[in-house]
Amino acid sequence: MSTIYEKNITSAHLLVSGQVQGVGFRKFSQAAARMLALSGAVRNLSDGRVELQVEGDRKNIEALIQSLREGPARARVDRVDVSWDTKKKGYTAFSISV
Length: 98
Known about the structure:
Blueprint: H1 4-7, E1 9-19, H2 25-35, E2 39-44, E3 50-57, H3 58-70, E4 76-85, E5 94-96
């Protein structure tokens, strides 16, 4: 039997475009996700984007997306593409992947 909390957990795949590498974006993302009690991972992609896989309460994921649109001071975010999903990978924390 699942708890009420588990029923509200969803998953999102995010791709952030702009000047988002070399400006502390992954660390910023990790701090924001942890403050919102989200789990998942963030990593740089070879094409210059940053990719996040996030799990948690949908409202908290939406708040994270808003934070990512602003980014850290040295970043310039042009776009955040979001794909919602109900499948979860079972992350227990939010980590930075290399």
